[in-house]
Amino acid sequence: MQDAHGREITYLRISVTDRCNFRCRYCSRPSQLLPRDRIMTFEDIVTLVKASQRLGFRKVRLTGGEPLLRQDIGELVSMLHGLGIRVSLTTNGSLLALKSRELKSAGLDSINVSLDFVDPVKFTYMDGGDVALVLRGIEAAVASDLETKINVVFTAKHERRDLVELLHLAESLGTPFRFIELMPKNGSSFNELFRPIGEAKSMLESITTLAPDEVPPDSGPVEYYVTAQGVKVGLIAFFSMNKCLNCNRLRVGSNGVIYPCLFRTAQVDALERLRSGVDGAVSALLEALSIKPLHGNPEEIGPEMQEIGG
Ligand code: SAM
Ligand code: SF4
Fold first, then answer.
1. Which atom of ligand 2 approaches the CA of 27 most closely?
2. Which domain holds residue 271?
């Protein structure tokens, strides 16, 4: 389905919970957690995805908060897989060692795991969790044959040796790593932590060579390279890369609010319409598409990260 600016919108990111067990410094939290009856049920999410398929959406990503905290997440994956749409998930990895097999057998097509540092002290400083759990989770995902990518939010705390460690890990796991430029979502920490993604590229080039690689379709604002060791490295920047013209997505908060842009306050509260059935959900998605702006505005902070899931 095309939006008002002629962009093909095919990708729906759905937050399944606003709860999280980590406290990443750069991530913004809603001031209050949602009451349970304001959170989409699995049936609501299925209705939403059926409606999106009617409009030509081809891919769904489940996110959060931390999506693996949602009870019976495997059941939801299985319900969505049964609709014949591609299903991916983004996780902090802390519960992945427990859940990777279940997710694979439920039909999950791919998984992105966030891992900012291999160093346990730096990891805990940045993310407020235990890196050993995340590393175990990543190994379990790879062992379960889930197509796995690692996301690193690149910040001023990254030194060359951190990137060396991350690249070694990527090489031993055989998984692509993507470095993401920090977005201005958490004011005070943004000023302290921001560093342009170009600096990640220079740092990587001081360690290895980067040969440009093809960007898969539906990938959003990403550039891909392959290192001399054969590791696929992505660089993602919503603003520096000025790729709003390639934007292909809508985001839905766990409360059923549709956000046409990460950096706009415009939104469509779809929960009641979802609960009226697929036609209602289609009308909400069409309304969101009709107000999707051509560009984000970094001054207009928009929805909280932990609510819409990146
Ligand atoms: N809890 C899960 C996780 O951390 O992967 C899913 C939700 S999290 C909000 C989704 C992604 O957004 C993560 O890769 C996280 O690192 C990224 N993220 C959060 N805040 C960000 C920010 N201010 N700038 C760039 N990426 C951010
Ligand atoms: Fe939680 Fe993910 Fe935000 Fe970190 S980035 S606080 S893991 S939602």
1. 3
2. 11-150+243-308
Look up residue 118 and give its amino acid.
V
The answer as to whether 36 is a domain residue is yes
CATH for 41: 3.20.20.70
Q: Is residue 303 part of a domain?
A: yes
191 part of a folded domain: no
DSSP state of 2: B
On whether residue 72 sits in a domain, the answer given is yes
**Whether 48 contacts 15, CB under 8 Å:** no
Q: Which of 21, 26, 27 to mutate to test the pocket of ligand 1 (most atoms within 8 A of CB)?
A: 27
Q: Which residues contact 32 (CB under 8 A, 6 or more apart)?
A: none
Question: 92 CA to middle of ligand 2, Å?
Answer: 7
How many separate domains does the chain show?
A: 1
Examine the pLDDT at 111 and tell me if it is beyond 70: yes
pTM: 0.95
Q: What is the 8-class DSSP label of residue 239?
A: T
Closest atom of ligand 2 to 65 CA is 8
CA of 66 to the centre of ligand 1 (A): 10
Q: What is the pLDDT of residues 210-230, one digit of tens each?
A: 999 988 766 666 899 999 999
